[in-house]
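I hope you will forgive my troubling you with a question about protein structure. I set the record out below, with my sincere thanks for your time.
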Amino acid sequence: MVRSCSGKHEIGIPYSPQLFPGGTSNGRKSPRPQHQHWYKHYVGVYVCGYNKWYCEAAEDCRNYNLCQKKMNRSIFRAWRSVQPGSSHPVAPGRRYASSASFNWEDPLAASELYTEEELAIQDTARQYCQERLLPRVLDGYRNEQYDRKIIKEMGELGLLGASIEGYGCAGASTVASGLIAKEVERVDSGYRSCMSVQSSLIMTGIYEFGTQEQKDRFLPELANGNLVGCFGLTEPNHGSDPGSIETIAREHPTKKGQYLLSGAKTWITNSPISDVMLVWAKLESTGKIRGFLVERSKCPPGTLETPAIKNKNGLRASITGMIQMDSCPVATENMFPDVEGLRGPFTCLNSARLGIAFGAMGALEDSLSRARTYALDRKQFKGNPLAKYQLIQKKLADAATDAAYGTLAATQVARLKDSNKLAPEMISMVKRQNCDRALTNVRALQEIFGGNAASDEYHIGRHVSNLFVVQTYEGQSDIHADTWHYAQAQAICGRRIHPGNIGGRWAVTGSSTRSLHATAEVTSSTTTFQHAAKLAPKIERAGSKLFKDADEAVADLKSGTTLLSSGFGLCGVAETLIQAIHRRGPENLKFQMVISNNAGVAGKGGLDILTEAGQINRMIISHLGSNRVLENKYLTGGIALELCPQGTLAERIRAGGAGIPAFFTATGANTLIQDGKIPVRVGASGNVLEHGKPREARTFNGRTYLMETALTGDVAIIRAWKADAAGNCVFRYATKAFGPIMAKAATLTIVEADNIVPVGSIHPDNVDLPGIFVDRVVPSTVAKVIEIEKTRSSEADNVVKPVESAGDIQRNRIAKWAAKELKQSDYVNLGAGECRMRIRLIDANGGGVHAGIPILVPSFVKEGVKVWVQSENGILGMGPYPITEEIDPDIVNAGKETASLLPGASTFDSSESFGMIRGGHMDVSILGALQVSANGDLANYMIPGKAFKGMGGAMDLVSNPRIVVTTTHVAKDGSPKIVQECSLPLTGANCVSTIITDLCVFQVDRANGGLTLTELAPRVDIEEIERKTEARFSIAEAKGHGTKGKCQWERNEERAKERARRERAKVKGVKKEGAKGEDANREGAKKGTLQLAAEDPEARAYSTSHKVGHGMFLGGLHAPGHRGKRGSHSCRDIMRILAVKSNINTPLLGKVILGAISGALVNIFMQDLGARSAYDCM
């Protein structure tokens, strides 16, 4: 008889070995470890809903009778089924009451579907991943580092290319390959991603489409991990649309058997460490997409760059980068011979996507295991485990169910692939479903951890971040859904549907190869903040900060580091450290990113030697300065440049050092900065390979602000005047500009000091940079360099003497005019001549040098008027150029010229300097211009299609409440600079208050839009202003500056009226004869005299319909609303009035008129009617 757990209560059914195999003589099995109700162990169905655990005696069951009845009924049915003659015989090998127990780790017994070989491979992969990968994952994820040895280790175990036959590969089933991916992703999706690129993308591509020579040469080395590969399909402008890729392969013009590849790929896993890259490009000759195997070792310097993409918020344990090619040579034998179009990349992608479907289940199962353990261990609410509560149980049950279903689905698809019964839509389905369910469930499981989920020690948050990327790349979930739309539409219509009718057909299979999907925005400079790439050398707090020399201090810097380099121009630049870095060479030290305000000067100093040596891959700067090498490299694609307004750059660095991830600023609003349209990297042919990132914009108090993210670095190199052994630093004058803020924003800071003093030598009040921000101190051994040396001849000579050329005199007049805008005790900022308007001056050696017009303004301030001149590099109270004896390389102005300081001056860093500007504390800024619009828009830093130096501080300076623009009235080509709307990229919108040119002065109505002419230069009349000004303007009734009596325009107006009076007297007789009619008019025309039938009804009707007054025409009188404006009627209209009753054609009549009336009258016509010249009439 069968007994209960305690053996006290018998149930009246004889023991049957068929019903209870393996039981004791009385039908009792040994208690299971979980000690649940005995009935569960025998029948496999838990019946008792009251006693959740086990009972020592049946009396312990609170509803024993009900439980017994249910058990008896169920057992009876099972017993009856095995009796002779039963109508429900048990099939051979099948039991209604199984002895198998439920395994929560494999709920649907998927392992029963795998062969012994497949299970052995899975066990090998699991052991390696748990023992070798799991201990590494947290450090790799935190520091965004990937150890290349991992690929080698996987190769030694035969995990790479496991489903490929031969070439050193395992030749296992697709299921086995999927199980490997599942175990790797159980640790981290990034590790699986790197493995999948190697196995499913590049190795599968070579195996399926490569020549035999390609297979023999590459596959064995890729299989054992000696070579690392990557797969390049996605481009900056084409993620889900690979059919539109822009990478071009053209035949080498001189070398037969070679192609030159140009273009950029982005979000490419493994690219920074790859030895061979499978790149898909369009043949220039045919437009067909072909595959090329690019070998890094065979690419000349400058033709191939693979910069890493840092600061990701997912897949951080993998390495991701770009592939940038500029006429990169590839031998013809490295091109896949037969496959064309998208069939090649799609085949590789489908192989990888099946691995993703398996891998996502591995991440889900690991998350489930961790959540279950946490729920059992975590005691809350009277000491109960979280697992006791049904809300928690439901989350666990949902996750377990989806993990089981997903594993079975992936296994089925893999089996179909091995039997050649696979349809591509199946892969889309399983990839989409498994990734969606994995992400949904892991997010739910994350809630079980509560606040602890924020700690990476629990791993659940890492899985969530990774699975978001996994769901997105290689076909985002919605893109794969379009495959179903396409398949269903095709089935319904019974014919093939053009892909263009089902948005996304190509996108489904075309999303990036292992590249993080372009639309994913996995890393975003607008949402992610951390301290750079964490590649800084280890900091020893207990050790000495003093190093013997610069070479020792930079010896352990690593390639890929982000570097912060201080200085403004050449002032405050760490020349000793830069030269030490240069001595290490590009083969040993190449920076992924350098952040600096300027880039050095060729042949003088700064970062120039590093850019020329190719030790910098990417830069964030505000101004190129005089670095022609950098400019040429940028324009030919040799380096990427992110141009950032100087004030924004300073604030981003300051924010990084202060732990502030982002901030909003008005700088750059309504410009190319906001739209992200300033090119970051261009190709050799001038095509844009990479644009900047658009900024998030918000409106505060009716004004547009842009969100800027903080900048940090691994290493900062700065120059200080004095430092002690504790790292405390003192800076002199303008060297403060970027030094202190960069030191605070770096993980490790190296200071070169002109003077190293003992601890305690620096008074605490004099410390500009506390030692906590400094890690290494070295002596400075390179002399300071002055970029532009300017002097005045003597103490009494404070005015710069111009070379007396006509152009210089005009520009000098602009500066004098602008000086009148400054009032007593004004705080004024002077731009550094951003628009490159220059005036020639005398330098210290008597030679010619150039300075921006705004910088000249203080030299013309009236005697007795004192203003405080602020320079954006951290000076308030800047004086005139120094005399020779006063030259100090640490005192320079915004134009990098030597300067002096007035009594009461102060110095500070650049973030404080631009805080004065953005905060509205300055009274006026004087800037140059390329264009100014009628509503005050300013363009002064860039002409598209031509070289440009960057915006410098100009975009920040327009934040001042009053902006005065100083510029020549027309450009060198004669085109107007004062325009109705700017066609050049804007520096600032609606910001200019006053425009001062060499011809006149305009005031700008920023509220309503419009210009008012307030003053004319000597020997300039309104006609010239109209001719050289595109914008519409009105004329002020007030007197001009510095004139006595009437303004220049008023005197011009009186002279014009006098000429008109005299001319009207001359044509008085002509008017009288006009009434004689049509015949007289014809006769008069023949004789060369002017006659008009003024009273003729048809002529009057014509003039009325064209809104041309007879008085305006005949007498040269001012028509209402025409004074000071360009007229709306041409002389051709007037000619038609004259010819309305004449048989003489209009051009002939025009010649008669021009011959009949005086030149003075023609001038009046031109002025009143707006014609630019007499030729407008012909």
Notes: The CA atoms of residues 376 and 1148 lie 105 Å apart.
